[in-house]
Amino acid sequence: MDEVQEMLRYAFQTKNRLTIPVSGTGSAGMEAALANFIEPGDHVLIGVIGYFGERMVDMAGRYGAIVDRIAVPWGQVLDLAEVEQALSKQSYKMLAIVHGETSSGALQPNIPDFAKAAHKHGALLVLDTVATLGGVPVETDTWDVDVAFSGSQKALSASPGLAPITVGARAEEMLTKRKTQVGSWYLSLREVQKYWGKERTYHHTAPIQLNYALHEALRLVVEEGLEARFYRHQENAEQLWKGLEELDMELLVKREHRLATVSSVKVPPSASHDKVKNHLLEDFGIEVGAGLGPLKGQIWRIGLMGHSSQRKYVSLVLAALREILAAG
Amino acid sequence: MDEVQEMLRYAFQTKNRLTIPVSGTGSAGMEAALANFIEPGDHVLIGVIGYFGERMVDMAGRYGAIVDRIAVPWGQVLDLAEVEQALSKQSYKMLAIVHGETSSGALQPNIPDFAKAAHKHGALLVLDTVATLGGVPVETDTWDVDVAFSGSQKALSASPGLAPITVGARAEEMLTKRKTQVGSWYLSLREVQKYWGKERTYHHTAPIQLNYALHEALRLVVEEGLEARFYRHQENAEQLWKGLEELDMELLVKREHRLATVSSVKVPPSASHDKVKNHLLEDFGIEVGAGLGPLKGQIWRIGLMGHSSQRKYVSLVLAALREILAAG
Hints:
Number of helices of chain A: 12
Oligomer: homodimer
Helix content of chain A: 40-55%
CATH superfamily of the largest domain in chain A: Type I PLP-dependent aspartate aminotransferase-like (Major domain)
Structural class of chain A: alpha/beta
CATH class of the largest domain in chain A: Alpha Beta
């Protein structure tokens, strides 16, 4: 358990004491990151650049927050000035944003500036790193992010079912100063962290095989090294983008905001979203993500995460798309 | 997924459509069983016969319930007449009780009568079967239990991390008639059940390896058959009780209320709770549970659950205790 924590700190690039895997999938980590810091009536500001920003809006409301949202069309990213303006107009408990939006393939830049803006106005910065941790730089301490959460099964390539979370000193202090109990018992970090502390105080039965799987996945992250890992993800993503463009396919997200772990490519007018998706799966063993929400039927999402970010897979998916689209 | 549901229905002895594993450990199942049916301001009545009854009191309060509790000393069980009296004095949304209390080793009898009493007064019966499902008869439909939940790692002997839950028609209807959203997004069954339905609508990434593990564990339950399984658990427990009595050790729970899956035995005045516990683990590879709460240091809890309910383990733990206690 100590090693899991130590390696998670390495992945998050943090010294945060409270760095643990939550016993649930990434969405449980998202809920923990919101529920532990929201008290009924708190104002929170949520940046929505896709599906998972909307999910945070839903969750925060369930915990009694008064939610304001700043949304942009899926595929685009938040504008810092607009968020700063919103922060100056209302006293928010937190600003929650998504680092890598799985639903669109967009990577939110300028995280340190969002952190600075949030802190200037007395708000925490909560960051969804589900699609980035272990694949794209996440510098929790340098960027001064208060709470970051992720999932075990994406760029960390462990089994699904755990949600790494890290909580900085500013946010951890808020856990002890709450006037009300955390709305969820299962996700209440004050109690969960005692299990990960010296006393190993029982809270709930740990999904222990998953914790072992995460340990091994993190060991591989350490063995490869974060820098090499980020380079690999970026290289393979760029090869994919280049290949897609050579196939005259259009990417949804403009170059400077593209996420290396998930690439969203537009369905050509001549092709059927579902047919190509099924063809890829049945004949090539490649599962691409469907378009969600407003992008339903309009994009395919190609994941190159963790173990699956390999040059040979880039070549294979490009060859497969070439064949399928040529066949019409 | 369909097979997991079908085999869970077999284990719960139910035809309930909404029968699924929640993506969290038993406590997440408990929280789902409460959170989905409680709206802020609802009155709920909780029977407390040990640690896990107290946990339900804590959780229900977090979801805004006004909680009344009926408690008995740990090791004893609820008195039906007392619960009926409480139900007649206040309009409760639910009565939540524990079938097998892991912390004390007590089995609550008369579940059908508690169900009848709850229904007579318009309340749901929520039943904690964490320590009983797959080891002791749980007859959801015959007993007319509205909501029952369990854990994957006890008498079902799968990996920890999943919480089977079953919801009857009366309770399922309440899900659609709520005036407020369920407090927890992650545990909201209306959304989760769509993933288990025909459309397989994405809600959260399933902890898929755990679902496969549960499938295999349930397959073994079906292969053995519930009746044979219950007989095995009861037989081995009775052998253990007989052996403990032959060692002049005293059981906490009186015979007619003993739980076959967990037996609590009093620490003799001459012995040290911790020393014997450590000795069992280090020299015999046997981990017994510590006494919790008011029973801290006073009992050991011996589990004979699922795969571990074997005659040879009964013989081993008795031989080990004999040796350790004789050595003093």
